[in-house]
Amino acid sequence: MDLSWDSLDIDSELKKIIKNEFKFESMTPIQAASIPLFITNKDLIVEAVTGSGKTLAFVIPILQILIRKSRAEAIKKHDIGAVVVSPTRELATQIFNVFKIFTDHSDEFHFKMMLLIGGSNTDKDIRNYANNGANIIVSTPGRLFDLLEKSTIFSSKIRQCLEVFVLDEADQLLNLGFEKTLNDIIDYLPKLRRTSLFSATQTKEVSQLIRAGLRNPMKIEIKEKNLKKLKPNQLHMPNRLMNKYIVFESAEDKLPFLIDFIRQHSKEKFLVFTSTCAQVNYFERILNRYLSSNKILLLKLHRKLKNKRQKIYDQFRETNHSLLLCTDVVSRGVDIPQVDWVIHFDLPLTIENYVHRCGRSAHQINTYGNSLLFCLGHEMQFVDHSKSRGIDVQQFDQNELKSDLQLKESLFNWIRSELKRNINFYQMSIEAFVSFIRTYSSKHLMAKWLFKNCDVVDIANGYGLLTMPKMPELRQAKKCSTQFKGSDEDAKIVGKFKQILYDKKVIKNNDSEQVSKIESNTAKKFGFKRNPEIVQTIRKVRRNKTMKGRTRKIIFDELDLEELNSDARMVKKLKKSKISNKEFDDYFGLSK
């Protein structure tokens, strides 16, 4: 197979940009196999592993096809000649930037491009297209379908002008639940088009999509020489990846080990994966406190951050000593330079997710990397299943596992102290635990076996919870002898927090009648009303229409905390006879 760029029948301008801007001396096998077929009107199915160079494998043919068309007929600014669909905003942005390198450095062609992703107003995208046009669209599925439905000019130009349609990471698109959306999008497309599908694995759902969207496709699958002996159901990792797992006796050991491990490798780059957005938010607060003195940049990323995601992702890509605490939103396709460690704080939901997470390290040419999977005793089934799928995963050297009892004790003392002091942090802890349990008990590949054998009390202790939340899922877990570390005093504090949260919710909804009822009930239950001055302040904040979002929330939290502290001070003053009984009654609204 000839891997030289000169062997390709493509425009000389494209070759010049590849050599000058990308500095690629030769093609990868997947590029050499797919590009010649793509530019000669073939529909393709390409199985491409991470680091195989698949982005250029469809970017170059798209540009070549549009260059050829532009020389035969004029391409107007609204003529959409190509659409690329990607599962995540981060990957879509990365693909868009590859296209941009070509268009920014060309003297001969200047195709207009448009990036369509969530986090911005759909109407703004429609106006942008109407005013400026686009010849190449890179989009996530939901946003593309929105524009097809809402913009007549957009959908009509797709039907009239589309030459190429590409689905990137098709298996993840389907795993994320986009099957119906993709089929609806395909219904809008013209029948005469070139379609290529790039996928890491061929699933039943992908096969159905192929039948719906491709015409007599050619399949391209390139494997490395040392992987040809793998069985059909086996998976493989990058060659230069050291893949290890570590088994903890208790869930309480995971956070202290993570902190200590990062401190010892603070000059390296980390991706730390958890299962849910709420876990990312909670653990980020904890890690921020314990890693702030180590000069490592700590970032968090999950789908709920919306339009902040790209800025955070770019910041992580551009720094060498950093840690990104994230969900699986960045587990596929994204190209992050030199990730030294991929740490799986929670088990991945599937074996395929495990492979893709690990592939964020050691996927670039001549780079090495490491993957470390955190396991509890009952989770060894996942490790065994991974090995049965051809994944070489070795146990972490136990001599390197130095248990820092002092760190563990100080960590959980601080967590529980902060939970008692900070109502917002308390909420985060509950949301993190609940979201993890619900995901672990229902969405995991091995949920049936793993959840019934897990110690939920031990996991709750690992989150530092003050009380065990009431969840139907917990009734399904096995009974264990582990002692929950919350106390009766903790339960009283949680009861107070719940009352505050309920009151705040009612006040926010501006239901004055219900507020009066709650104040009356609170007086009967606790022996006093809410501090009238603070209630009045809260009402003023609520009426202030210019105060929005996070600022408003912080003020409410501070007011709640201030009321707790103020109440406590008044009780102490009464005990020490610094105030009279009448002054105490007046403060709490008990005077007749």
From TrEMBL:
Residue intervals of the Helicase C-terminal domain: 254-411
Keywords: ATP-binding, Helicase, Hydrolase, Nucleotide-binding, RNA-binding
UniProt xrefs under InterPro entries: DEAD/DEAH_box_helicase_dom, Helicase_ATP-bd, Helicase_C-like, P-loop_NTPase, RNA_helicase_DEAD_Q_motif, SPB4-like_CTE
Annotated motif Q motif, positions: 3-32
Domain DEAD-box RNA helicase Q: 3-32
Catalytic reaction equation(s): ATP + H2O = ADP + phosphate + H(+)
Domain Helicase ATP-binding residues, every copy: 35-220
Entry remark concerning the domains of this protein: The Q motif is unique to and characteristic of the DEAD box family of RNA helicases and controls ATP binding and hydrolysis.
Family: Belongs to the DEAD box helicase family.
Name of the protein: ATP-dependent RNA helicase
